[in-house]
Amino acid sequence: MNWEVLLAPYEQVVEELKVKLKGMRKQFEQESRHSPIEFITARVKPIASIMEKAEKRQVPLHKIEEEIQDIAGIRVVCQFVDDIYTVVRMLQERNDFTILKEIDYIKNEKSSGYRSYHMIIEYPAETIHGRKSVLAEIQIRTLAMNFWATNEHSLNYKYKGRIPEKIQKRLQLAAEAAFNLDEEMSKIKNEIQEAQRIFHRM
Ligand code: 0O2
């Protein structure tokens, strides 16, 4: 398999989506409105991780593009929980890609404590060989959810997916604490936004 050729459209899609989402953020700023997008990160899954996931899920090589839906991954990080749903609505209204699947791991958090909104999209990439439909995963989460997920991801890596039970329990407590932090911040959202508008004008 020529990985470089296979992954090229995914690299392109990640770059295009990054530009588009950053454009949305900029537009909010230009109109002096609160941006529901705090920052964006994006990556193409490393070959070793694709292979590992394929092996774990017993996906044959010729089915990788169909079955591994997060080869292209975009992460949208928001300040408040409400912002996540604003971003979701804005993405639902776009017509430059099709949404295939949406999973709300905020209303239905994972047993690990993981919270995020996932969207699997089909994005038309224009290549030198014509149009190619590429699947991409958009994860939308708050800063607190991102903090938790980043730390849990590192621990998962360290313990090769078998985090000791004691640490798992702590992570669940930390996930609740992150959830409560989001709730508390939401309650003073208007105050924070007003302060940020004043700060921005200075
Ligand atoms: P990476 O790139 O290292 O992050 P989906 O159908 O994809 O929306 P599903 O079925 O849960 O949801 O898929 P999967 O493959 O389990 O998870 C997709 C991605 O969501 C993961 O990518 C993580 O980024 C994130 N994720 C899901 N569950 C958890 C969790 O419990 N903890 C953390 N920290 N992240 C999670 P990968 O494959 O881990 O790769």
Notable features of this structure?
202 residues; alpha+beta; Beta Polymerase, domain 2; GTP_Pyrophosphokinase; RelA_SpoT; GTP pyrophosphokinase family protein; NT_sf
Write the layout of secondary structure elements.
Blueprint: H1 3-30, E1 39-44, H2 47-56, H3 64-67, E2 72-78, H4 81-93, E3 98-104, E4 117-127, E5 130-142, H5 143-158, H6 165-187, H7 189-201
Parallel strand pairs: 2-5
Antiparallel strand pairs: 1-2, 3-4, 4-5
Helix pairs in contact: 5-6
Ligand 0O2 binds near residues 53, 70 and 152.
Tell me the strand percentage band.
15-25%
Give, in spatial order, the strands making up the sheet with the most strands: 1-2-5-4-3
Largest β sheet strand count, sense and barrel closure: 5 strands, mixed
H/E topology pattern: HEHHEHEEEHHH
DSSP helical segment count: 7
Residues in helix, %: 40-55%
Just name the CATH architecture of the domain at 3-143: 2-Layer Sandwich
Shape: flat
Poorly predicted regions are none
- What is the rounded distance between the termini? 55 Å
Radius of gyration: 18 Å
Indicate the mean pLDDT: 95
According to CATH, what is the class of the domain at 3-143? Alpha Beta
Small molecules bound in the structure, each named once? ligand 0O2
Report the structural category.
alpha+beta
Q: How many extended strands?
A: 5
Query: In CATH terms, what is the fold-level topology of the domain at 3-143?
Result: Beta Polymerase, domain 2
CATH H-level superfamily of the domain at 3-143: Beta Polymerase, domain 2
